[in-house]
Amino acid sequence: MTMGKIIFYEEKNFQGRSYECMGDCADMHSYLKHCHSCRVESGCFMVYDQTNYMGNQYFMRRGEYGDYMNMFGWNNCIRSWRMIPMWQGSYRMRIYERENYGGQMYDCMDDCDSFMDRYHMSHCMSCHVMDGHWLMYEHPHYRGRMWYFGPGEYRNFSNMGYGNMRFMSMRRIMHSFY
Prior knowledge:
- The protein folds into two domains: 5-84, Sandwich (Gamma-B Crystallin, domain 1); 92-177, Sandwich (Gamma-B Crystallin, domain 1), CATH 2.60.20.10.
- It has 178 residues and is mainly beta.
- The termini are close together.
- It has helices spanning 68-72, 115-119; strands spanning 5-11, 15-21, 37-42, 44-50, 54-60, 63-65, 80-84, 92-98, 102-108, 126-131, 134-139, 143-149, 152-154, 169-172.
- 6% of the residues lie in helices and 46% in strands.
- It has a four-stranded antiparallel β-sheet. A four-stranded antiparallel β-sheet has the order 9-8-10-13, with no helix packed on it.
- This is Gamma-crystallin M2-like.
- Keywords: Eye lens protein, Repeat.
- Belongs to the beta/gamma-crystallin family.
- Residues 4-42, 43-85, 132-174 form the Beta/gamma crystallin 'Greek key' domain.
- GO terms for molecular function: structural constituent of eye lens.
């Protein structure tokens, strides 16, 4: 398994105190008061604007994020993060139109830039990820807020803290992202 490495900085443009990490963290306050920039040296991460992997999420891969709050349109700093393990194998997800696996169902094995165009389904409200790691987006063409889904069952997005979130596109987190 490839390890990820991310460095957080208290100020914009990689200034101030820093914290280097190679795994998950549910609460950044243990290490830094706040974070206004970061650098991903290896791997991929989901960062969250609330503790315990809650709130708005953003996918980060190798690169420099000197002013991510402006870039993402966030009002809050990164408060928690999770490393996304590299996946080598096939990708498979079953998406459902309604909560609790109701309504139309489709098996997916590749990216989909519009549920409406491909499946004639306006949105997705539950899913089962059998293989791989995926990002789902609130709008077609991979736009808007995003959420990470690893292998598992996701019966009810609103019970998971996503509110009335309705996903309209999705993409695989591919080996090339690392």
